[in-house]
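Dear colleagues,

I hope this message finds you well. In preparation for our joint manuscript, I am sending the DUF4260 domain-containing protein (Roseococcus pinisoli) sequence together with its predicted structure, so that both groups work from identical material. I would be grateful if you could confirm receipt.
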Amino acid sequence: MSGTTKGAPRALLRFEALFVLIAASVAYARLDANWWMFAALFFAPDLSMLGYLAGRKAGAAVYNLGHWYGLPLACIAWGVFGQAPQILAVGLIWVAHIGLDRTLGYGLKYTDGFGVTHLGLVGKARGAAQGSTRDGTQRERY
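The corresponding structure tokens are as follows:
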């Protein structure tokens, strides 16, 4: 597993993502847009997990496309410059979702498995990477 962040850089990336979540949510509130739409669409990017039905490689590619800041930022630009407030709202919701995921440690995926991300191991992958020491405490193998 290479390419994952550890220590202070990982903490800073997660803290940065919290600011992205907050900024996108505040910007959404300033739009005076419908909060039902925010709630309804907030987890829509997680539908990209369905890509894993086609295997790990396809799953990681589809998931990463849905959790890459590029597409929602394009929506935000289109919404601002094209005077399309609904598209702007969708972009802000999408960015807020990515911010929450990254704050929680769910980063972009590697093809090794769903739990292997650029922010480290999560879920089952993290549990599998931990072993016991002689005194019964847990330690990470990576």
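For the figure legend, we might mention the following. The chain is about 55% helix and 10% strand. The first strand starts at residue 109 and ends at 110.

With kind regards,
E.M.
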